[in-house]
Structure formats: C-alpha cells, structure tokens
Amino acid sequence: MAGLSGSDHDFKRNAAPFNRAASLRCHRLPKNRWAVILAGGEGARLRPLTRLICGDERPKQFCSLYGGATLLQHARQRAERSVRSGHVLFSLTRAHEAFYSPLLADCRRQWIVQPYNRGTGAAIVSSLLYVARRAPDAVAAIFPSDHHYSDENIVAEAVENAFELAEAEPRVVLLGAKPSSPEVEYGWIEVGDPIAGVAPAFRVRGFHEKPSGELASLLLRRQALWNTFVMIGPVLPFLETIYSAAPDLVGALRRSVMPRGPRGEVRLEESAYARIPSVDFSRQILPAVTGRLIVRQLGPVVWNDLGDCNRALDALSEAGLEPDWAERWRARPPAASAVA
C-alpha cells in the first residue's frame, strides 16, 4: 500500500496556513460552484520518471514532482481557490486506490470512483451528472490533475473570470494558454471573433489535437491557443453540449445509479461502464461542439502538461524549480532516460 512519504508529510504541514485561509475563503465563495478534478488517467508517458521518484507504478498525478506535494494536491489547491472545498469532486479509477486513498482520506464522500478508465469523456460526464442530480443550477469547472502553471494567481484570476462569463452567457468556457512554440504534442484552439466587452475571450473556430509541425507553425502565426483542458460551464448546458456530440455516452451514464461505497465514496456501476466505449473528450467531443464554446486566454503564465519526462524537467527548470530527482534523472543512461 502507498503511504505518505516524507515530502507528503512536509506538504501537509506547510499547507496548514493555506487550509485555514481556504476555510475562511470558502464562506465567501458562491454556493452554486462545483469543481471536478480529473485524476483517473494512467500517465504512461511519464512512468519512467515517476518510477524513479516513487519506486512504483503510480500515475503522475499521485507523484510529487515539485514543491513537496503531488500533482493531485496542487490541483486540489488550485480548485479550492475558486470553489468551496466540499464541492470539489475527484474523478478516480478503482485500480489506483492505493495511491489516492492516503492523499484524499479527508474527503471520501467527494470521490467519484470509476470501475475502470473509459477516457476523459466518461469521467467528465459521470461527474457532471453527479453534480446535476444534486445542484441543477450549479456552474461546474473541470480541472486536469497533472499540469503545471508558473503563476497560480494568474490562473485563479482567469478561472474567476471564466465562472462569471459562463454564468452570463451561459456557455462552456475553456482556458487557453498563449503558445511559445509550434508544439506538436498539445491540443490547439483556433480562435474566432472576440466577444465584445469580455477581453480576452473569443468564439471558438476549431480544435487541432497534436497537429503536424507545419500545422502547428501555422496555428502559432494565427495566434491560436494551447488547450489547457480547464473548462467551466453551467452544469445542465454543459451536459446538453456533450449530449449533442455523444448522446449514447450521456444516455448510458444518465440511466445508471451512483451508489455509495462502504466508506462514503461514490462507486459507479460496472455494468454501466461495460456498455460505453472509451471517449476522448478532446478528440471526439470538443471539435463537434465549437459553436457552443468560448475560449478565454490566460494572462502571462507558462503552462505545461508535464506530458513526457524530459519536457517535465525542462518546464520545472524554466520555472526556477530544481527538484531533488533532477540530478538522478539526468545521470541515467540515455537509453534509460527515453520516454516510454
């Protein structure tokens, strides 16, 4: 079983002032806001690095890459700056329970446990359905659990503005990061017309997931944005938007029940998941619903999805972070350091 490492204990101790401040701030946050942190992925491309750091096969979101906290804990802090802590849900996968159980022991009733991974589509839909059944007037935010930002204050400001924009429209609002290079491993958002009075926000013209080098260079010149996969929208319009692209997925999960486990967690029905295909939200949902979306550009912040080992190290180094595992990683033989 995975336990708390020394760095995890350090994080819990260092986070105490933050937790007290967050508790006070919760009373000022709108009651209709919810958040979902997507933490059910496998993180296979970063596995050589997480294996070096942790000595086991955990996905990257359950690994401490910087700051003494796991990426999941960083994501939780990020969400709790805009959403009451009791309204932050965690979309998880049953096979990873040994890794997330000690990290999220204080909020088991906020676990949405999938029997197995069916892609980001099922994770998002099942979590939004849970919110819709309890708070149909809610505005929900989706956060990945495994990304890095150079300035959390800028992200928090953008999320706050996106909540306000989603409530005013109401549409699903995505956060896009200004690109620094023609990156071929990211998703890109091609922006359309600006929204009057809500700069910097735009209609969405199209999506390009992991484009060719030539197309990425063209998108960079066109001032397209990188898709951070942070999304905010009123929960019912959010579900209706997804339904227009994937009615079978939404229909199958809408008919399922969401029973509580023995310790309070929600455990989604295995029979429901057996009836649905794996759905990639970026590739199969977003390109089909561009007319229903808005993208808001993040301010001056560096974003990285920490998607492969060397890119993760480069991103942290550029942010002025030098984790204790960096020297060990650089010292590995070139063949062993290759991304799996």
Summarize the structure in words.
This protein is α/β, with parallel strands linked by helices and 340 residues long. It has a single domain, classed as Spore Coat Polysaccharide Biosynthesis Protein SpsA, Chain A (Alpha-Beta Complex). It is built from 15 helices and 12 strands. The strands form 2 sheets. A 5-stranded mixed barrel has the order 6-9-7-8-11. Helix 6 runs antiparallel to helix 9 and helix 9 crosses helix 10. The radius of gyration is 19 Å and the shape is globular. The two termini are 25 Å apart. The N terminus and C terminus are likely disordered.
Fraction of helical residues: 25-40%
CA-based shape: globular
Name of the CATH superfamily: Spore Coat Polysaccharide Biosynthesis Protein SpsA, Chain A
Number of separate strands = 12
Low-confidence stretches: 1-24, 336-340
How is the main sheet built?
5 strands, mixed, barrel
Cα-to-Cα separation, first versus last residue: 25 Å
**Order of helix and strand elements from N to C terminus:** HHEHHEHEHEEHEEEHEHHEHHEEHHH
The second-level CATH architecture is Alpha-Beta Complex
Please give a handful of descriptors for the protein shown:
single chain, 19% strand, two-stranded antiparallel ribbon, 340 residues, globular, Spore Coat Polysaccharide Biosynthesis Protein SpsA, Chain A, 15 helices, disordered N terminus, alpha/beta, disordered C terminus
